[in-house]
Design brief:
Layout: E1 13-16, E2 20-24, E3 28-33, E4 38-39, E5 42-43, H1 51-65, E6 73-75, H2 89-92, E7 96-100, E8 103-104, E9 107-114, H3 117-126, E10 128-129, E11 132-133, E12 143-149, E13 152-153, H4 165-172, H5 174-197, E14 200-212, E15 215-219, E16 228-232, H6 248-255, H7 270-288
Antiparallel strand pairs: 1-2, 2-3, 3-7, 4-5, 6-7, 8-14, 9-12, 9-13, 9-14, 10-11, 14-15, 14-16
């Protein structure tokens, strides 16, 4: 079933993000990935079939693989969910996880490995990305000399704002800032190396971290088509923006309209919905080596 929003009677909801619903289980949280999709920081009115299951299951795949960093996952197995969630098993299956209750850090940890998106625009204007100077003569979609850590603020609505490394240290404190930068770069490098073997380039990505008992842990999602820019290795060319395993069909369609990119967002045609769903499913199967499990 497609889910755009979700309420679980008797289970307090703490909030709704652009994609996830967050429920309070006392000393734990329930995260549910809906089939919502956002573009240009606006949530669209259509569901993308199976998108929530891709995000949830692919994140779980990466969390279990990246065993050098502690993460927030307790279980994705519905049978092991608390008893009060069992009546909602059909709605939660495949798209939810019970997680530790960490205190989220107020910085998004972005890592860029290739010249793309806003980074390419920044480079064209300033020969820098987020204030970090780069060599002259780089082309669109070119691999950077080394991955860049480019933190940003976490906007509850509207656009995230890039911040400098100094601002990041002021917000998080020296020790935590250094730790999340080092972890972000290592996770990216490990993820990029694995994905390249599976025919996918991870152009850039973002991570979120939280504090639990004073320790930094990885939270939210990890290396998904929502949080990352995935390119097929076979179609990577310098000087052009390669096709990607994410919201490309949605963005391209919206760019063809006269919409001013402020809410309410327009509805999507069925062709765009089905192509986007197929791309998410393709990314999952290519990275994991198997199709998304049927519910």
């Amino acid at each position: 079933m497609d889910i755009l929003s979700l309420d679980l009677p008797g289970i307090p909801k703490l909030g709704s993000g652009k994609v996830r619903e967050i429920f309070d289980l006392g000393d734990r949280l329930l995260l549910v990935a809906t089939d919502r999709i956002s573009a240009f920081d606006c949530v669209l009115p259509n569901a993308i079939p199976r998108k929530g299951a891709v995000l949830n299951t692919l994140s779980a795949f990466w969390f279990s693989r990246l065993n050098f960093v502690e993460n927030h996952v307790l279980t994705t197995d519905i049978a092991r969910f608390p008893e009060q969630l069992q009546p909602f098993a059909a709605q939660l299956a495949g798209r939810s996880m019970v997680v530790k209750k960490a205190q989220p850090l107020s910085v998004e940890c972005v890592v860029r490995g290739y010249l793309a998106g806003s980074g390419w625009k920044d480079y064209q204007a300033t020969q820098s990305i987020c204030g970090q100077r780069l060599p002259a003569g780089l082309q669109q979609a070119e691999q950077l000399p080394e991955p860049l850590f480019t933190p940003s603020t976490k906007a509850q609505s509207g656009h995230d704002e890039n911040i400098s490394w100094d601002q990041c240290r002021e917000i998080l404190g020296e020790s935590v800032a250094e730790e999340v930068r080092a972890l972000s770069l290592r996770i990216y490098e490990e993820g990029r190396a694995y994905a390249a073997q599976r025919g996918i380039l991870v152009a850039d990505t973002k991570f979120e971290f939280g504090l639990l008992d004073g320790k930094v842990i990885l939270i939210d999602e990890c290396l998904t088509p929502d949080s990352s820019r995935f390119w097929p290795v076979s179609e990577h060319r310098l000087g052009i923006s390669p096709p990607s395993f994410d919201k490309q069909f949605v963005r391209d369609y919206l760019e063809s309209l006269t919409w001013d990119k402020t809410p309410p967002a327009p509805a999507l045609p069925e062709t765009v919905i089905s192509k986007t769903s197929a791309k998410y499913l393709e990314a999952y199967s290519q990275l994991t080596g198997q199709p998304l499990p049927e519910l």
